[in-house]
Amino acid sequence: MSSIKPRTMPGVLELLPLDQIAFQGMLDTIRRNYERFGFLPVETPVMEFSEVLLTKSGGETERQVYFVQSTGALEQGGTPELALRFDLTVPLARYVAEHEHELSFPFRRYQIQRVYRGERAQRGRFREFYQCDIDVIGKDHLSIRYDAEMPAVIHSVFRELDIGPFTIQLNNRKLIRGFFEDLGIADGERQMLVLREVDKLDKRGADAVRATLQGEGFGLPAEVVARIMDFVSTRSTGHDHALACLERLGRGNPTLAQGADELREVLTLVRAFGVPETHYALNLSIARGLDYYTGTVYETHLTDYPQIGSICSGGRYDNLASHYTKSKLPGVGISIGATRLFWQLREAKLIGTADSTVQVLVTQMDEADLPKYLELAGLLRSAGIPTEVQMEPRKLAKQFQYADRAGIRFVAVLGPDELAKGVVTIKDLRKQDQFEVARGDLVKTLRVEIEQAAAMKGR
Q1: Tell me, what's the pLDDT at 414?
Q2: What is the rounded average pLDDT of the residues 214-230?
Q3: Average confidence score pLDDT of the chain
Q4: What pLDDT does 62 receive?
Q5: Could you tell me the pLDDT band of residue 58, with boundaries at 50, 70 and 90?
Q6: How far, in Å, CA of 365 to CA of 105, rounded?
Q7: Bridge partners of 362?
Q8: Is 428 in contact with 440 (CB distance < 8 Å)?
Q9: Which residues make Cβ contacts (< 8 Å) with residue 72, sequence separation at least 6?
Q10: Spatial distance between the Cα atoms of 424 and 417, rounded to a whole number of angstroms
Q11: How far apart are alpha carbons 326 and 97 in whole angstroms?
Q12: CA distance 412 to 436
């Protein structure tokens, strides 16, 4: 029988254990900060009914859906009833509409799960990836104040991830729409096309965007394009400067004035939340590509690695679940694409391989004493110290080598001499030194060593 070559499909991130620990640490940090701000966990099925899932518009995602069929349905030639979710927003809309009368509003949820898209196979693009979302959803109304909470959460997450300086960039879709209306670009579809082009400014550059807007596809007069380019080039350099930029725009039409007022309130509250003004800025080029954003929008960029693009984005929407309920459910949310972010940070060498979650390996010196090694491991585990036991006899040097390759820092040796003296020998494989400790002091001593090792790693 011929063997099948083991291989993974393109577009998935499959990690070795120590890298998986580092990735899991990132997810745990994100989850911890979401919970710190009072968001509650939700999980939805990886599959949804196709008719429920394929209601969202305004992007390429619907063309990238993976449909799901059972073998029985395939044999009968049936059309796919189910599809894999391509984001967490549509499942959230269905969830809120279905459980509307059981939820407390404003409903604050976080969701950390995999999503699936039929991305074209290329480096850094994923077909299966984790999204980490939070949303606040209101019933009939949701205060603009919640829009200011999102940057506070973003700041908390990325400050703890400690991956370098970053800036949370803010804008408001009403501000942009009002500005376009003043320029005579009032048609909704035409506005949306211009918005999508403006949103590519940082990727394509000003000259390319300008040429496109003046070209056959848009045909905007040069003076109108010049005003658009001047508007979208606005970037603030501090809190007061951001407010001054909004003031210079004037009142304009009611849509522009409302957008400016909302941004002003959001910026004021972002500072009240304690976000340093070095970490947020006004950026009037941000539009976000998806049509359902209606107010505040966010993008977060690493200062020293702009080529990575936005590492966290989101915004305000008027009605989350209009396809599934007559109730008006406005909301605001953000999303972190954790898989892509982890891959990019690893490529940029901003994160490395993690230490093993196993902190101690108990060696085996004599097979007859295995019950004593198991007892020692049980003592450490009861104290909350993750411990592995060498279950098969092998040379001590080989056991040390195994621990080192597995990323286990501390090795506990319980040989005849140690048993006679009532001590345990601890070898620190990082420092390459060892010491004896009385059995009764073992837990306390190891805890100190582990805490000191963690502190040194964090410097």
Answers
A1: 95
A2: 84
A3: 91
A4: 62
A5: very low
A6: 61
A7: 389, 412
A8: no
A9: none
A10: 9
A11: 9
A12: 10
Asked whether residue 14 falls in the same domain as residue 117, the answer is: yes
Residues 337 and 408 in one domain: no
DSSP string, 188-214: HHHHHHHHHHHTTHHHH-HHHHHHHHH
User: What is the token pair recorded at 316?
Assistant: 């305000």
Range of the domain at 287: 165-295
Ordered DSSP codes for 142-164: --THHHHHHHHHHHHHHHHHT-S
Same domain, 208 and 319: no
Q: Which residue has the tokens 């942009």?
A: 176
First to last CA, the chain: 54
pLDDT at residue 9 in the model: 87
- Please check whether residue 345 lies inside any domain of the structure: yes
DSSP-assigned beta bridge partners for residue 433: 428
H/E stretch holding 230: helix 222-232
Tell me the CB-side half-sphere exposure of residue 209, using CA atoms within 13 A.
Answer: 22
Query: pLDDT tens across 344-373, in order?
Result: 999 988 998 898 999 999 999 999 999 999
Residue 307, helix vs strand vs coil = helix
Please tell me whether residues 344 and 444 are part of one structural domain: no
| Whole-number pLDDT of residue 138 | 97
Distance CA 208, CA 210 (A): 5
For residue 111, the domain's CATH number is 3.30.930.10
Please give the tally of structural domains in the chain: 3
Whether residues 159 and 103 share a domain: the answer is yes
Write the pLDDT tens digit of every residue in 294-311.
999 999 999 999 888 899
Token pair for residue 92?
């959230």
Task: Starting at the earlier edge strand, list the strands of the sheet with 331-337.
Answer: 40-41, 107-116, 128-137, 331-337, 312-317, 293-302, 166-172, 280-282
d(CA 41, CA 34) in angstroms, rounded, equals 9
Higher pLDDT, 176 or 455: 176
